[in-house]
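Table S2 (text version). Query chain:
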Amino acid sequence: MLLEQPGAWGADALTESALPPQVATHLAGFAARLPARVLLLRRTGGAPHPGAGRSLFVAYSDTDHSWLERFQLDHARDVLDMSLDELTAGRSVGGDPVTDPLYLVCTNGKHDPCCAEYGLPVARALAETAGDRLWECSHVGGDRFAGNLVCLPDGVFYGHLDADIARAAVTAHEQRRVLLDAWRGRSPVPFAAQAAEGFVRRELGIDGLDHLRYLGVERRGAIHHARFALARDREVSVAVRETRIGVPRALTCAGEPTVAPAFELVGLADVERL
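Corresponding structure-token output:
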């Protein structure tokens, strides 16, 4: 759920902004019940979008079916009167369908200064490329990957972006391709499976977003086994192991020294007929 809220945001943007407290409490409670993530949006530079009211987007990201809808509200308090129960089943909540991708760049510098330092230049660059489809957003997770980019409704995440790489990522997404060098994965897929998908794409040279379909993952001891369907009725099984290698260091501008988790490829099974 993405609610336009111009102006400054605190570390917890939902409760530390000019958003009415009852609206923040309502959205936080709804998100906890689903579960879902609630983000605040603003135009680059913090100015409201020209015209009356504010936008509310509802996005549903799944590996097989994703959609995005938009509501135009007169006031943020209007969300208190909305019925969003259908979202729990992944069904439309009655907004206007949005057919073109939406792009979000985290610029929540109060959550972590890196988000503003690296995110703002990316947001400014993409505002020229994506126009009204580009929004600054509050914390999306993964400060250590700043600048971050989220592509909705597919739930595709990119990280460690500068302006040029961000433009290339948007171009790739518009063509339903993946820019592997900066790709973080897809939000509907567990972390281990995101890593496994990255290995599959690199090993087999697959950059088409829709050319690989996630089938599931299971953990056997320390190893995660993920399965993906490829084109031409083929399937691949990937084994990955979570590791923590390296010297502790600050991964974000505000973070304490730590060793980042990572995944290593254990094995990629021969592609078989389903």
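Notes on Table S2: The chain has two domains: 2-174, 190-273. DSSP finds four helices and 17 strands in the chain.
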